[in-house]
């Protein structure tokens, strides 16, 4: 009986050591998952900051486009006035050519800014998609963490 008891005690001690090792591993995994969750939450904060920055850029670009469009309209009005006046002097024709060039440059700038806004909108949509994916990953990691905690509690 004593030999049987000693063997049983040794088996229980071994089993206890195995359970302690498993518990430590589980705690390490939980700590690592916690760290990953923190990193994900930091990344989502950065994504939110980037979204607001992109929004500000879009607003700034839109206001610049409106200003350039006003300037363009003003130049077109001036060109039309010059045409209406039918001034044939050399100065008016030079000014007309100059205004035409400036008008073309402004049109190109407007086009570039509109392209830039489209790119920013696409980037913003991509960031929103990424943010949603990160939130889903975070929720999945939380479920895994809860499962691991439950397993650890059961093992303990």
Question: How does this structure look, described?
Answer:
α1 (2-85) packs antiparallel against α2 (90-155). This protein is 96% helix and 0% strand. By secondary structure, it is mostly helical. It is rod-shaped, with a radius of gyration of 35 Å. The longest helix has 84 residues, at 2-85. It has helices at 2-85, 90-155. GO terms for molecular function: dynein light intermediate chain binding; microtubule binding. Residues 58-151 form a coiled coil. This is DAPLE protein. Keywords: Coiled coil.
Helical fraction: over 70%
Give the ordered list of helices and strands: HH
**Largest beta-sheet details:** none
What gap, in angstroms, lies between the N and C termini?
Answer: 29 Å
What structural class results from the helix and strand content?
A: mainly alpha
Gross geometry: rod-shaped
The counted number of beta strands is 0
Binned strand content = under 5%
Radius of gyration: 35 Å
Number of helices: 2
Q: SSE layout and pairings?
A:
Elements: H1 2-85, H2 90-155
Question: What are its keywords?
Answer:
single chain; 156 residues; mainly alpha; coiled coil
In short:
The protein has 156 residues and is mainly α. Helix content is 96%, strand content 0%.
